[in-house]
Amino acid sequence: MQGADFTSVATLTALYLAAFAAAQRYAVHKMGTKLDGGSPRWRNFLGLLPQVCVMPSLWVASALVPGSASVFAAVFANVFGSMLLFDLCAIKYNAMMLAHHWLCLAGHCFAMSVAPEAFGRYFGAVVALELGSATSCSWWMWGGEWPRALDALYGGGMTLSNGLGAALLLRWAHGATSLPLLARCAPVPIVATLLFFRQKEMVALLRYGRAVCST
Q1: In the predicted model, what is the mean pLDDT of the chain?
Q2: Burial level of 167, CB count in 10 A (0-12/13-18/19+)?
Q3: Which of 19, 76, 148, 183 places its Cα 20 to 30 Å from the Cα of 106?
């Protein structure tokens, strides 16, 4: 990465971290600390910043701004990595949520370290999956106020998110040509299992209500 690109990545990452810190203070004050779906309400609210605003914007910018793909991909890598590290350090999750976050962090480190030719597909997969997570967070926070709208958003959004994530995962495995076949295929069953349980949880919550989820 050239000096100008490094400066751009560092500047954009610093701006994001500053915005995240300010948003965290607001979220704690505004939303409180009640657990919703295994996470504090303030964390569900705060997560919408990277999930809905920042990472999708970076993905669109990487596709539309000529010669900028590597810069925006690097900023995305910092944003998503910092989000996972923040969650692991700042929030007391149950064992299942901890395992989920550690798997995501390990996968993120793997994707950053190998097969740069396929990183754009990983980038798109994470954006798609995090948008699905945003529908879950929104359902937990506001589903009681707007049940029909949030049920539709959660059900449709999570299903679409999981489908896109699975498709882009397969495209990553196909496109990571610098890796041996086994290394390309190894993440597929792991991520497929995570997607299965995301979809299963969504169906159970919409069918039986919040009581099925132990927080």
Answers
A1: 94
A2: middle
A3: 19
